[in-house]
């Protein structure tokens, strides 16, 4: 896996209130017909790796652009690298002033960013940094902290279960996603000392190509076959976690083996309420989207963007101005906070058998 970026500073004050990842596209126009008016293009990566890209990011970005009264075009590449580049070409030709991308991999991302730069289009890496790329800005969460929360969360759940020298299996995210590298840096920083001290036993450890949940299920079945006594699963997001839970359920071991996650998806939260998943990491996507929208609108209007951090691109050997938000660990006792924040609704979470579990968890 690639070396991750390093947070090098977080001391630049926010001057403006930056508050802050479906094949169909969304677009809206501001008033007037002046071609010089701000126009922002956004390329999302897929809808397979995580539900968040369509259910949260598209929604919040659209709302923010509409509120700002700017033209925008949001499209989803659906995991297709060629389509990703085609969408970018179309957006640049259509006259976007700013291009925001969530790369599928750094190679494809770099090609798109470099082309945009050559056309005088301002660029923002959204959620994932493009290694070796040329984005002027980066907006995301502190992704090493995300991984740290996952490692600590697994440790808490194992401690609560009074587990003795559990064998830990790890389902890492895609090796082409720099964020997966950062998550791993965070949770390995927590788990490695446990392995060294003999408190935990390091078990199977494998990356899941393209965050593919179906592949994750196959990989975890193979892990469980090779090591039947797996006692904990560090899964890098809720989709991978659910894939592991499905395999454990076949053996009536769901709930006995703590599994982590990330993204606070409806499915992940339901798994937590049911006791099949021990925790997830909530990243307030609205904050990330709002920060990106405010930054993009400023750039589209020819203004300088305001940031609160700097990250290092180790491949490009450059520092990138950034806005980084803070992730939060979610367990059964604070699932209600995700609902209260409006990220998921009670109606979509508390369906069927989960209604009683929601009531017990204090979800109103």
Automatic annotation (TrEMBL):
Q: What is its main location?
A: other
Q: Name one GO molecular function term.
A: carbohydrate binding
- Signal sequence region: 1-20
Cell compartment(s), UniProt: Cell envelope
Keyword Metal-binding appears in the UniProt entry:
no
One GO cellular-component annotation of the UniProt record comes to: outer membrane-bounded periplasmic space
Record carries keyword Signal: yes
Keywords of the record, alphabetical order, are:
Signal
Periplasmic binding protein domain sequence ranges: 40-304
| The protein's name in its UniProt record | Sugar ABC transporter substrate-binding protein
Recall the taxonomic lineage recorded for the source organism. Answer: Bacteria, Bacillati, Actinomycetota, Actinomycetes, Kitasatosporales
